[in-house]
Amino acid sequence: MASFSRFIRTTVLNNLSFKLVALALSVALWWFIAGENEIQVGLVVPLEIRNIPVGFLITNKVDRQVELRLSGPPSILGNMKPDDVSASIDLSNSRAGRRIVSVEERGIHVPPGVKVSRMYPTAVEVLLERLERRRMPVAARVVASPAIRQRIMKVDVEPRTVEVEAPPAAFSQVAGLYTEEIIPEKAKGLYSTMARVELWTVHAKIVGNPVVRVRIQFR
Fold this sequence. Notes:
This protein is of the alpha+beta class. The protein folds into 2 domains: 37-130, RNA Polymerase Alpha Subunit, Chain A, domain 2, CATH 2.170.120.30; 132-218, YbbR-like domain (RNA Polymerase Alpha Subunit, Chain A, domain 2, Beta Complex). The chain has helices at residues 2-13, 16-35, 74-77, 146-149, 168-171, and strands at 39-50, 56-58, 65-72, 86-90, 97-102, 108-109, 115-120, 123-130, 132-142, 152-158, 161-166, 177-182, 190-198, 205-207, 211-218. Strand 12 (177-182) and strand 13 form a beta hairpin.
């Protein structure tokens, strides 16, 4: 019994005045917020697409914005920062193909005390395609006058191929890749430079280094 009394004195009665003040402030703050008349505000936030399965790519144009109507106390809504509100959808369990993904309220992050009274759109269409990897030949895109081009003996690209990742249908559009435009600074002997390989579609990417060495041998 004595130990219980000591526990009460040390945990409850210790700094009792400070605890009572903190409790009073918490209650007052709660009454202040609860007593405010709710207002509504509208805003547009980016829609983040999370957890795209490895080896897949979104190939359609997805609406990347969500219009929200929020309701809550003026003291909270008036002090919100841009990063206090966010919207996202999760594709972790998605498979290849076209599907409608709901924009659920659990994917909307808002400050405590704020409610989502309306959102638009409530769903977005997503087309997921499986990616393939293939090696594709690379040719140099040399820009020069006809007189200079006649003096070119040989053009070498190293490496001659690069590995590309893209949806299967995209590979049927081209047989090979080209570098960015190369304008030789001299037209005699051996001219060597580094050049970036260009892609033909935004749905493709080069696996590894996208830069190759180009050597032009002149007569």
